[in-house]
Specification:
Layout (H helix, E strand, L loop, with lengths): L3 E10 L10 H9 L6 E2 L5 E5 L6 H21 L3 E3 L17 H10 L1 H4 L5 E7 L3 H11 L3 H8 L15 H6 L5 E2 L7 H14 L9 E2 L1 E3 L5 E8 L4 H23 L9 H14 L5 H11 L1 H7 L2 H14 L2 H12 L2 H12 L2
């Protein structure tokens, strides 16, 4: 059974106003005193958690919950609140860059794209045999990535307004020249050549700026799936992770059978991204996700996750994901405090 690891990015805000606050270094230090390592993101209002290498679904749920609570406690210790939201719901004044040489280089080269970040996603690592397999798996993942985005959508309210999208984060994220669906490549050599061309053109500072929604990890023997908003709840993150693993398992099975990856044009794929970012779990998406889970059934059953995935998908469609919660809170009376309260409750649910 392939192992899984999950990275979640969180926003740090003022508990009263909901304004992003530049406390990531202090919060990371406070968390380290509790035995939890938090990573610093590009902007100083964000921190990132990372689970260990896990196989069991229940262990993953327990670890994600533990890390969320530990990070939230560290944030409170520093006068901040931890929110699992993919974008700040309030009107941020600015996003200071975290004080490292590399982050300053990124900010200097990419300007306002970097300075208007505050973007929080979720990255799922799934074990694969080698880098060639990872590249081929990414080819199979391309048409499935928009559905993972729709499931996790958690950025409907931005700058104290309904953006009109369930995931406005994904729309803003496309501004990076190295973001979006992974390129078509059939080997690690071909993939590395594409990355080298991007670096030579200046569109990437280094291979750490490979922001494609699925990529071979530079650090681990995994495929890293990066399409999702940070989900509102730990349970939603677990569902995302087991579906991501099932996608990789299904892709590996197809590759072993000698089946070619489905061909899909860049324009059609980006249209699918746009539609899933706009609709989230509304419109036709629930039916598409139900069919998606059925397509992944052999892998989910092999992992013992099929019944759980079916039940969780049904529950989330009924209760709503992060974007739907945000909109329900906003529509009560148009008060951003209701959105912030709902987000805070979901983060530690």
């Amino acid at each position: 059974m392939p192992t899984v690891g999950v990275e979640e990015e969180f926003l740090l805000v003022d508990p009263d106003s909901g304004q992003p606050v530049p406390h990531n270094t202090d919060v990371a230090h406070a968390a380290s005193e509790r035995g939890v390592d938090l990573q610093l993101e590009l902007t100083t209002c964000q921190v990132e958690t990372a689970t260990g290498v896990l196989t069991d679904r229940d262990d993953l749920h327990a670890e994600i919950t533990r890390l969320r609570h530990a990070a939230a406690q560290a944030a409170r210790q520093c006068g901040a609140q931890l929110l699992a939201v993919a974008l700040p719901p309030t009107i941020p004044r600015h996003f200071p860059i975290t004080d490292t040489p590399r982050y300053h280089q990124i900010a200097d080269r990419f300007g306002m794209i970097a300075h208007e970040q505050g973007i929080s996603g979720c990255h799922v690592h799934v074990e694969v045999p080698d880098r060639d397999a990872a590249v081929r798996v990414c080819m199979w993942l391309r048409p499935w990535l928009p559905l993972l985005l729709a499931l996790s959508a958690n950025s409907a309210i931005y700058r104290e307004a309904d953006s009109g999208y369930a995931s406005w984060r994904s729309i803003l994220w496309q501004r990076w020249p190295s973001a979006g669906p992974p390129p078509a490549a059939n080997s690690a050599e071909e993939y590395d050549a594409l990355v080298a061309q991007m670096e030579e053109s200046g569109a990437m500072l280094d291979d750490g700026m490979v922001y494609w929604d699925a990529r071979p990890s530079a650090k681990f023997p995994t495929v890293e799936i990066r399409a999702a908003d940070v989900p509102a709840t730990a349970a939603e993150t677990v569902l995302l992770a087991i579906l991501a693993r099932a996608c990789v398992m299904t892709a590996c099975a197809h590759i072993e059978q000698g089946r070619p990856a489905p061909e899909i044009s860049e324009h059609v794929l980006r249209a699918a991204y746009w539609r899933c970012a706009r609709d989230g779990l509304e419109g036709r998406t629930p039916a598409m996700l139900t069919a998606f889970v059925e397509e992944l059934r052999p892998a989910l059953e092999q992992a013992g996750d099929f019944d759980y995935a079916q039940a969780e998908l049904k529950r989330i469609v009924q209760d709503g994901n992060g974007a739907m919660r945000q909109r329900r809170a906003w529509r009560r009376r148009g008060d951003i405090r209701d959105v912030l309260k709902a987000a805070a409750q979901a983060t530690l649910a």
